[in-house]
Amino acid sequence: MPEPLFLFILAALVFSAFIKGSLGMGFSTICLAILANVIELKTAISIVVVPSLISNLMVMLDAGNWKISIQRFWLMLLMTAPGMLLGLQLLRQTDNSASLLVLAVVLISYGIWGLRNHEFRIEDNYVKRLNPLIGLTTGAVNGATGSQIFPVMPYLLSLDLNKDVVVQTINLSFTLCSLIMLVGLFSINALDTQSMLTYSLGLAPVMFGVWLGNKLRRKLSDRRFRQSVMILIVVLGALLLFR
Predict the structure, then answer these.
(1) pLDDT digits 0-9 by tens, 82-91
(2) What's the pLDDT score for residue 2?
(3) By the 8 A CB rule, do 17 and 53 touch?
(4) 26, 19 in Cβ contact below 8 A?
(5) Is the peptide bond before 151 cis (omega within 30 degrees of 0)?
(6) Whole-model pTM?
């Protein structure tokens, strides 16, 4: 691989890792959007998959609040798996371009609505009933479109949670979805194994980017964190739209 391309890929990984550490999400979507401009998508996915999982783990270790996240949202996380299987079936059987368009518009609209200081709150007594539905829907949307943040992120932001619990819970969801997707991609030989192994050996820059982002997140107030997440949601929706 030419050295300029190698350095460009490393820079994309570090930038995406910094965003991930700062806001708890966005690594895969942002990194793939950057890399897909210079290399084929299959290779880009293979490069991103292991650093994405490592970034999830680092953010979860930094965020803490494991007990709260698992106790309150274990059923939501569990239902992600059958949702993913359903979404992957839909992906195989239909053209997902319309689904991507709808999802992009929803994310952009929600992000702009949130940036206008609107807040939608869900009462705690509804959480147990909504958790399995949110998990199933999140898995289905991820399997069908590749997006991991809807509706789980808007759902978590609508609850009375501090930013670290939100970050921990969303990354538990991301990790489960990523592992299921990884197994699925391996089963259909859709990974460039050589590229995956090559960039797995260079995880230090990714870990540095996440570490820097984690330091920034600790300084963000809950209000500033929410505003920053809304901006990122708009950006992710725009990236889906252009895909």
Answers:
(1) 998 888 777 6
(2) 67
(3) no
(4) yes
(5) yes
(6) 0.85
